[in-house]
Write a structure and sequence with these properties.
Blueprint (H helix, E strand, L loop, with lengths): L30 E8 L5 E5 L5 E2 L5 H13 L8 E3 L2 H7 L14 E3 H10 L3 H12 L2 H14 L33 E2 L1 H14 L4 H4 L3 E4 L7 E4 L17 E9 L3 E10 L2 E10 L8 H16 E6 L10 E5 L5 E6 L3 E6 L17 E2 L7 E4 L20 E4 L8 H12 L1
Parallel strand pairs: 13-16
Antiparallel strand pairs: 1-2, 1-11, 3-6, 4-5, 7-8, 9-10, 10-11, 12-15, 13-14, 14-18, 17-18
Helix pairs in contact: 1-4, 1-6, 2-4, 3-4, 4-5
Length: 418
């Protein structure tokens, strides 16, 4: 008689090299916080104070842009929607301390122009007007921003306006309950979550963020050349020929210092980085980009991307017995591929499976029948953004086995009896 073994397979990512085992990143950054994540999976590849909540400045505009794109997707706005210039937005354009575009008093501008100005030139009035467009008012827009962050599981953010400016610039027209000196605050982890959702849901945003210049309100009296603040783009002062950076957004205020949420795709894999308050910005205007390049180069130079292919078999019990089946044993393997980053020092991940199953399987057995979940061991602990931890990977049969019939079935039943 066949023994009956209870199937139980669990997903396990454990540190097998001891408490002093290797970490993914080997560098540090000269900033208050730094982070790198895989843009698709959310695996954390570098983390320096990534959970510390800090002012974010104009990186806020990534959330403003997300809600704008979402409103367009839902049919509530179009790229050609004309947005009237509010009194506050017009007043801000006159403040030469701030990044802006020239706006005509009582004029109107398209959502497309305001979107481009917000992303490329970090125009504060433009971002505010986008909020008016998708929500109807600044207060309603901030409420939407807060609700969206909550939906994404971000609970430690503090959002008070659309642009990322200090409230002191807003002429008293501030979010109810906020102080006149308040600013938007989030952690590097939070910013990575925002950027990840933006890139996944609206990858076309890169068509704009990769631009170094563009004309605002072409053909009107407000026409002006937009220039990027992302000096890591090709041809800019902080460009690195090894890093084809194509986004995303800088952020700068007195409290936030020099910040940057960046993204780059190299060797077929896109990552997102966040640097908050680069410490040497007062003496080097490229400080935030220098620290970003450190992180990006560390990921691509010191880490490698591994994929365990769909159908990969366990190292033991690669086949399971089938009772009364035309195939006495069927192969099992991963139902889908599994990918992750590891330090190059461990070029080949140590993948093991602990597979025990209720055997024999009862014929007929269909192909892709789930028989458990994979137990994968890696040489370092894999960490992910909140809500991005991979679900346990199913282990399934890779071939089918029909049930015996006629005399063959009778013979097998007799043999099983004895």
């Amino acid at each position: 008689m066949f023994k009956k073994i209870i199937i139980r397979v669990t997903l396990l990512l454990t540190l097998v090299l001891g408490s002093a085992g290797p970490t993914l990143a080997v560098t540090t950054v000269d900033a208050k916080a730094g982070l790198a994540v895989d843009a698709q999976s959310g695996q954390i590849l570098f983390d320096q104070a990534g959970s510390e909540v800090l002012p974010i400045g104009s990186m806020t505009k990534l959330l403003t842009v997300y809600l704008t794109l979402n409103a367009i997707k839902q049919g509530k706005l179009s790229w050609d929607t004309q947005v009237p210039v509010s009194a506050l937005a017009y007043k801000l354009t006159k403040n030469t301390e701030l990044t802006n575009v020239p706006l005509t008093e009582n004029g109107k501008y398209s959502v497309r122009d305001l979107y481009d100005a917000s992303l490329i030139h970090s125009a504060n009035s433009a971002a505010m007007l986008l909020g008016d467009a998708f929500a109807g008012s600044q207060t309603a827009a901030v409420k939407q921003m807060r609700a969206q962050l909550q939906k994404w599981g971000i609970k430690d953010a503090y959002i008070v306006n659309l642009s990322g400016l200090n409230n002191s610039y807003l002429d008293g027209q501030i979010y109810p309950g906020s102080a006149t000196t308040d600013e938007n605050k989030m952690s590097a982890v939070d910013m990575a979550i925002v950027a990840q959702h933006l890139l996944k849901d609206f990858p076309e945003v890169l068509n704009t963020t990769k631009q170094t210049n563009m004309t605002f309100a072409a053909g009107t009296s407000s026409a002006t050349k937009l220039t990027t603040w992302n000096f890591m783009l090709a041809g800019q002062a902080a460009a690195d020929t090894n890093l084809p950076v194509d986004g995303l957004k800088t952020g700068t205020t007195e409290l936030a210092g020099a910040c940057f949420t960046g993204t780059v795709k190299k060797d077929g894999h896109r990552i997102i980085t966040v640097v908050m308050h680069a410490n040497k910005n007062e003496t080097d205007s490229n400080a935030r980009f220098i620290e970003t390049a450190k992180i990006m180069n560390d990921v691509y130079n010191e880490q490698s991307y591994h994929t365990i292919a769909q159908g990969s078999a366990p190292t033991n019990q690669q086949r399971l017995p089938v009772k009364l089946g035309t195939q006495p044993r069927v192969p099992v393997g991963l139902a889908q591929s599994v990918s992750f980053w590891l330090p190059k020092a461990q070029a080949k991940p140590k993948v093991t499976y602990k597979l025990t199953a209720k055997t024999p399987l009862a014929a007929p057995v269909a192909k892709d029948k789930m028989v458990g979940t994979a137990n994968i061991t890696t040489p370092v602990t894999l960490r992910y953004l909140p809500g991005e931890t991979p679900k346990a990977t199913k282990v399934t049969t890779q071939k089918a086995s029909a049930k015996l019939t006629g005399f063959s079935l009778f013979k097998a039943q007799v043999a099983d009896f004895f």
